Amino acid sequence: MIEVLPVQASLSRLASRPAAATLLAIALAAVTLGPAASPAAAATIPAGAGSYTDARPAGTSGPTTNTGAPVTPKLTTAARDKPVPTNDWWSSLAFQRYGDNPHSTPMYGHPLTYQAKASGLEVGYPTTPAIVGDGRQYEYAHKADLTVGLTGLNSPDTKADAWSDWTVTPYWADGSRTFRATIGHGMPFVYAKGSGGDARITTASTPTVFADNGNVVGITVAGHHYALFAPTGSDWNISGTTITAGLGSKDYFSLAVLPSTDALATYRKYAFSFVTGSQVAWQTTGGNVRATYTLTTEAREGTERGTLQALYRHQWLHTTDALTPYTYVSPRGTMKVREAASFTTSQKNQGVVPALPVAGGVDRARLTGYLNEVANASDPFSGASDTYWTGKALGKLAQLVPVADQIGQTATRDKLLGLMKGRLQEWFTAGGASEFSYDKDWKTLTGYPASYGSDTELNDHHFHYSYYVYAAAIIAQYDQAWVADSAWGTMIKHLIRDTANPSRTDSAYPFLRGFDVYAGHSWASGHQGFAAGNNQESSSESINLSAGLVLWGAATGDNNLRDLGSYLLTTESEAITQYWFDASEQVFPASYKYGTVGMVWGSGASYSTWWTANPEEIHGINVLPVTGGSLHLAREKAAIKRNIAEMERENGGPAQEWRDLLWEFEALSDPTSAKAKYDSVNGNYEPEQGESKAHTYHWINTLNTLGAPDMTVSGDLPTSAVFSKNGTRTYTAHNHSSTTRTVTFSDGKTLSVPARSTATSTGPGGNPDPDPEEPGNPSTGNTFRLKTGGVLTTATTDPAGADTIASADGLNRDGTPYRPTVYEVKQVNGKVSAGAATAFRLRVDAGTKVGLAPQVRVSYDLTGDGTFDRTETFRYFATDPVAGWEEYTQAVGAQAATGSLGELKNGTVRLEIWNALGNGTSQVQTGTDAAVLRIPYV
């Protein structure tokens, strides 16, 4: 456990070892949860053949404070009847977890951080990470640079007044004054509105004023630059750490964090274009997922309706929209600024299949024996009684249904289906030992018996219910009558609406309760009541819900829901790749010693779980459950190899407790190695509690036969996938519809799939170890251009552009990359060219800034295993303070070199450029013949 964080009795915890049980007991004791007030007599609400109640079962609890006192949403009158999206980055505004804090805990919007206080809104911009918790956690913790409010404001509480997809407006009132501030993800501005007092900014230390133009002031606090904007005709008055401005007849003002002082003029342009809402729209077509993120605005002065917004790494990697040179620091790596009210991302759809396809390497007799062990067990549910562990058991059975069907074991298939139906029907019928109850205050459906705070903290609904949705999707594949609305389908739809509601107008449930569309992933805590913000541990269980939506939507003919699942899965896949696994090695701080994390927090991330420090669980918690929705993990095979290597290093050897999960994970990158580890134990192991020997045997041997997933190719049907081995691709797709469907893959292959069937075909193509650069394509040649988005490419048709090189922050960074801008290419093959050397030609520009010095390092990973075998650091180039491009080449000379060059075999080449000196940003050109790296290979 991380000592700097409060203990939370939440999140799906999977170990049964005594140590884990002890930790969980300590966690439960720490929050001293007691029963809330006794519920009223429950009424039964019919839902098709099922039912739920409108009040909790006797003796159970709903949402509470940490001391067990019942709590209802903390909303203004205007918001009182709206379903509040718990499990968000700002949920502590609405969910008062602590009786002595009626305002909020720290909220991480990025680049800004916030915390509501009686006097207004604290605002910070943390730019320096701290490594805490015995080195296991990195954090950019909230620290107020300033507090924004009104003169004299002293509100007894702060409430949520309005919200949209990624913005929120908190509200303060003290009887004489009212104050609102709209904040959000990616927003460098805070938009304030108040009455009853002057605008007031209180700084944490005496500010340095770098601009004073009456109603527009530029200040520097703690090394961070802010602009303050009062209405035209007003004038900011600065007295020590207090800055005020009379608003006159107006009721608005704003502030912005600036990437540099010279950005003031650009930001001033949008100071009074107030953001009033945010919305994402997604579309899945032709094997691609497109999403457009739009801010709505209103002009409080003048006519300007544009704005500025900062994109996270998982967003700017996948957009072709123009970006400015401005950047921000965040716990998710560099954020890049767009000067527009919207932007669009596009990604390959990450396919989901009900099961891996038939493969010759699977011994059907052995598999049948393993299937029978599960189907004929005395208790296939292993004593599960709460929502989480029941879900895990359902998930285990669901994975085996299509496997049994695949090898003709129809009796076993039907027995497994019967077990799943029976248990789901128990839960979907009110009045028994297990049931679902609707909370009209919180507008949520909670299963009882609950677990891990799913009742008192509204934690983890997307984790728990993912298994129910996935199981129902598998049932729907075989029994359409069972999932009809008049039967049990209505109850499944209630679980979907509770966790992943696509509607913004549903009065019963909020829009996408746990999924943060801008952050790109879900949050697990219902109340977000931590100094480190909200958190998510098991990103893979969030993916399990998205995969379940794809399969449920496909099986029931609801293409809108299917496409929602594709959007959620594809988006979160990139977030996991970057923020949990640091696949590009551009997110975690250089001083952080781990290459993967078990938990992501608003402030950073930690190498930990809620219940154990065992490396197997830390690495495995973001893998389980392994399903046909797990194939997306294969996009970054080198990262999987690094992940497994780190686990074994930290573990003191190969996995023992969760070995099956980690074998399956490794098989997505290196099936041969995974099979060797699997074969070495000859079946003598205890499966993880959501796994079975049948599924693990089928998974590993199928991938060993077909090859790892080939993520360079996607199909135009979301339920399709491609595998590759020794130059042969295997294409598979499942057609849930009632007519034959032709699936077209992005490499031109077509596959005819009969109605309600799986089809498989082969063709030439692929790579024995496909590991695509994302974005980009496998490389050829020895000359590469820098491409915006962090790519080295042989293409010569990309548009010209420029990327920002971060400031050295006034320190000497000579020889050591500091916040470098990185360009990389994978799958490079070549032999060393005798007598040749690394060469580059780059155009750089520091504008009018004095004393800057870009520096380059080129690194070679000869085998693509994640370890760089050769690095070459070149001397820095001192730029002049005159605007205009200057040329920087290898002619400056080498400063240092380590390691040796050798043959590149699916290798990786990386160029890093950073400012070695100075206190300002510079730029490097991209997409031109003056943005070139040439490597000494043929």
How is this fold's topology laid out?
Elements: H1 18-31, E1 44-47, E2 50-53, E3 107-108, E4 113-117, E5 120-124, E6 130-132, E7 137-139, E8 146-150, E9 158-163, E10 167-173, E11 178-184, E12 189-195, E13 199-203, E14 208-212, E15 216-221, E16 224-229, E17 237-239, E18 242-245, E19 252-258, H2 264-268, E20 273-285, E21 288-299, E22 308-311, H3 313-316, E23 327-328, E24 335-339, E25 342-348, H4 364-375, H5 387-406, H6 410-427, E26 435-439, E27 444-448, H7 461-478, H8 489-500, E28 515-516, E29 521-522, E30 535-536, H9 539-556, H10 559-580, E31 599-601, E32 604-606, H11 615-620, H12 637-651, H13 659-667, H14 671-680, H15 693-706, E33 708-709, E34 720-725, E35 728-735, E36 741-744, E37 750-753, E38 757-764, E39 783-787, E40 791-793, E41 801-805, E42 821-830, E43 839-845, E44 854-861, E45 870-874, E46 886-889, E47 894-899, E48 904-915, E49 922-926, E50 931-934
Antiparallel strand pairs: 1-2, 3-4, 4-5, 5-8, 6-7, 7-32, 8-13, 9-10, 10-11, 11-12, 12-19, 13-18, 14-15, 15-16, 16-19, 17-18, 20-21, 21-25, 22-24, 23-24, 26-27, 28-29, 30-31, 31-32, 33-34, 34-35, 35-38, 36-37, 39-40, 39-50, 41-49, 42-48, 43-46, 43-49, 43-50, 44-45, 44-48, 45-47
